[in-house]
Amino acid sequence: MDPVENSPPATALPPDQEIRARRRLLEAAIQIFDRKGYAASSVREIAEAAGVTKPVVYYHFGSKEGLLVAILDEAVRDFNRTIDAAVARAGSARERLVRLCEDVYGLFERNVSVARVAHMVFLGPRDVAPLYDLMVLERRLRDGVVRIVKDGQAADELRGVDAEDVALAAMGILEGCQDRQMFPELSQVGHDGLRRILNLLFDGLMIDRHAQGALTS
Amino acid sequence: MDPVENSPPATALPPDQEIRARRRLLEAAIQIFDRKGYAASSVREIAEAAGVTKPVVYYHFGSKEGLLVAILDEAVRDFNRTIDAAVARAGSARERLVRLCEDVYGLFERNVSVARVAHMVFLGPRDVAPLYDLMVLERRLRDGVVRIVKDGQAADELRGVDAEDVALAAMGILEGCQDRQMFPELSQVGHDGLRRILNLLFDGLMIDRHAQGALTS
Predict the structure, then answer these.
(1) Do A171 and B176 touch (CB under 8 A)?
(2) Residue B93, exposed/middle/buried by CB under 10 A (0-12, 13-18, 19+)?
(3) Of A51, A147, B4, B162, which is the most exposed, with the fewest CB atoms less than 10 Å away?
């Protein structure tokens, strides 16, 4: 708002270098927040890790909180694009749902540090004011799954169960698999594992209904 | 180890009052860790909230870390008892699996503050030394589910899929439902919802196999 506050600092760089400095600051902040936690991280060490001075941080982001918000804004934008593209895709509801889950799993895989920072913010102490409404991710994913399930029900492909229940089942499976990525010491299910586990949900676990097909073959 | 260090402080109480003081300290620590986070909580305020002096905390728990470990030890013990009882239960694999998930969901429901503290410790900054191996819970639950699934496969009740995959599917659904309990602003699925969503996994989502049953009726 204030042109004086938002004007470049004395150390301002040419525009392309400024864009690169901004990107380096975001990357440095993600790594440092992830390693030390948000509260224990300082603007000074983030600036140093990005090879810039503190005024450059304040020029681009205003504050440490501004850096965190910029990181989460970018994550939410990528997430929303991924969901929208998956919902808009052609194909059976089953294919679209599996692809949606795989795409979200892949996005998480490429941004594990951001995911860990987001989890810390989200599950942090209750009397630290919530810095960011990450529930938007949950709602957007659920709405995407519900939309695809309803398409599949309208096309007589999927049973007429509660689409919100299906969303909770699919999201539970997806999140159970992707959350393991935050713990490198755990064996990772990978894209194949995720697809296999989602197929259990589509095909069910019971032998009696499965056997009907098997007996006629 | 040192009998002098472990001897009751000058403020020691009669045994029954000491047990109650220990319990009050655990409850106070759970509430304060949950509200402020582990790092920001002090032994002094926990002692005050429990109506005891600081030496009483050190006598029972040794340190703030000792308090946290005692809280988590108790949670792990309750969790393990719940799993063991559910695995030992009679009935079909389907009934046993649903009951196991409901029991764990109910335990979480009665201990949401402890669960939130455990999540904070578990997902805390990576360069804070891990204070407690909470992976034991994950492994114990998975082993319990795998055991029941294998019983169901041996009894020709469940399809011969990878039991570890089934465990990841069931645990994803269970944890997706129970994690919502940490956010009171979300609508809760409750025991009925959990059962309904698990039934989707048992019965599958596809209409073609479902229709085989419907067409013959």
Answers:
(1) yes
(2) buried
(3) B4
- For position A128, which CATH number holds? 1.10.357.10
Task: Supply the range of the domain harboring residue A31.
Answer: 1-62
Which pTM was predicted? 0.86
Q: Are B84 and B100 in contact (CB under 8 A)?
A: no
pLDDT for res A215: 44
Q: Do A101 and A29 belong to one domain?
A: no
d(CA A31, CA A24): 11
ipTM exceeding 0.90, yes/no: no
CATH code: domain of residue B1: 1.10.10.60
Give the pLDDT mean for B181-200: 92
Q: Using an 8 Å Cβ cutoff, are B162 and A162 in contact?
A: no
Q: Residue A109 domain-assigned?
A: yes
Within a 10 A sphere around the Cβ of A195, how many other Cβ atoms? 15
Q: Are B172 and A177 in contact (CB under 8 A)?
A: yes
What is the CB-side half-sphere exposure of residue A62 using CA atoms within 13 A? 9
One domain, residues B7 and B89: no
Q: Cα separation of A49 and A31, whole Å?
A: 10
User: Is A120 within the bounds of a domain?
Assistant: yes
CA-to-CA distance for B94 and B88, rounded, in angstroms? 14
Q: Does B129 lie in the same domain as B26? A: no
Written as six digits, the tokens of B20 are: 């109650």
Q: Judge whether residue A130 has pLDDT over 70.
A: no
Subunit contact A193:B126, Cβ cutoff 8 A = no
